[in-house]
Amino acid sequence: MSGELLINVTPSETRVALIENGVLQEVHVERESRRGLVGNIYLGKVIRVLPGMQAAFIDINLEKAAFLHASDINTKLIISNDDLPADHVPDIRALVHEGQQIVVQVIKDPLGTKGARLTTDITVAARYLVLMPNANHAGISQRIESSKERNRLKDIITPYCSEEHGFIVRTAAEGANEKELKHDAEFLRRVWKKVQDRKKRKQMKAPIYQDLSLAFRVLRDFVGIDLERIRIDSKLTFEQLREFTEEFVPNLTPFLENYPGERPIFDLFDVENEIQRALHRRIELKSGGYLIIDQTEAMTTIDINTGGFVGHRNLEETIFNTNSEATQVIARQLRLRNLGGIIIVDFIDMNSTEHQKRVLHSLDVAMAKDNVKYSISNFSKLGLVEMTRKRTRESLEHILCGECSVCSGRGHLKTVETVCFEILREIVRVNRAYDSDKFIVYASSAVSESLINDEYHHLAELEVFIGKQIKVQTETMYNQEQFDVIMM
Length: 488
Fold this sequence. Notes:
By secondary structure, the protein is of the alpha+beta class. It has four domains: 3-35 and 214-273, Nucleotidyltransferase, domain 5; 41-201, CATH 2.40.50.140; 281-400, Aminopeptidase; 416-487, Ribonuclease E, catalytic domain (Hypothetical Protein Ychn, Chain: A, 3-Layer(aba) Sandwich). The chain contains eleven helices and 23 strands. It has helices at 147-157, 178-201, 214-221, 235-248, 271-277, 315-337, 353-367, 396-400, 416-433, 445-452, 456-466, and strands at residues 3-9, 13-20, 23-31, 41-50, 55-59, 66-69, 101-108, 117-119, 124-125, 129-132, 138-140, 166-169, 227-232, 256-258, 282-284, 290-295, 299-305, 341-346, 374-379, 384-389, 438-443, 469-474, 483-487. Strands 15-16-17-18-20-19 form a six-stranded mixed β-sheet, covered by helices on one side. Strands 3-2-1-13-14 form a five-stranded mixed β-sheet, with helices on both faces. A five-stranded antiparallel β-sheet has the order 6-5-4-7-8, with no helix packed on it.
């Protein structure tokens, strides 16, 4: 599998596109005004303790207070009790108190109405290693399956562990030599020393450690991908990335290219249009079927339909083929849209148990290309498949889109007829409550036109009923649901 990274940089925004075999697979967007917070370390202040939720709200100088659950607090840093079971979580009131200063790290960005989620188990990542200040041992990524390689890496890293910190060996370290791992360990030690120095200053207005910006982070974190080329359309960023790779990821330096072309870099491989399509609910399948993807705050639902695909043999074969094709598209769309949390897939009902097993296998194989942790359940009695995909940052839709000012996120509008009847009821209500000579209705052009034409007989009957004149005027700035009833 061949891969290519396109990095588009402007002063206000950085975008990265991962192309595999000529097809867009992932898009990462970071805006300077809304840089992701995951990985940032703060000296926070406890502002409220909630015993009922076993949690506390922490002020880290963001718009919304951050959330720290008792299970995310390293109790070794707070209390010492050798008699506690390993899985025991003490009462939150024994761990923190209001007004307390505490060092925390963001593990989930703010999402919707929810503030950032925090932990006191601090980690700092480099290319091959993750430093754990509150541990004293070496751990190996579970994705490194070879026991021989695991033992080799552990033997190299263990001498760098101390009573003050330990290390986790990342998946990218598989095959790395001792010099590369030593370089990472020393780099992380220097970073942690700076964090400790900033902590002593007790300043809460800025993070005491901030993760790398997007362009640098993707070069550090994209593992297991055979990159042929990394094109950057900013000369300054290209030079910075070259210095960074020479120091930390020298094997990537030869693949860096500055892209000076007049054609926008995201026009290559049709990236801009693919991003626009990733914001649509409906995704067409080559067979003629289609998917409907709906993202809510609680979960994402995916519905598969045969559409115009009638197949060549029988209905059962048609359904199986559509579901099988859908698994490939689902896996790609989850990566492309960065959808996480609970995902419910409503496959077209299959009577064959063998077909169900093959569809689940196809979905698992397609998802295996994803670098994000996931799990897939079996078909439920209702024919649904429940999935989870780890979510640590906002989806593409949340980054690029906002709530509709007309429907307030409902996804639909009241019909013109419904609004007309609401207006007629409002006139009756106001007439009973107040004394007036006549009424003026201000409404959108579509509603005004309907009141004057389609609903004229209802309007006339109401004038007779209340014995007062009703005048309708168009307000061009009103949306379809807006109206005002004015007494004169």
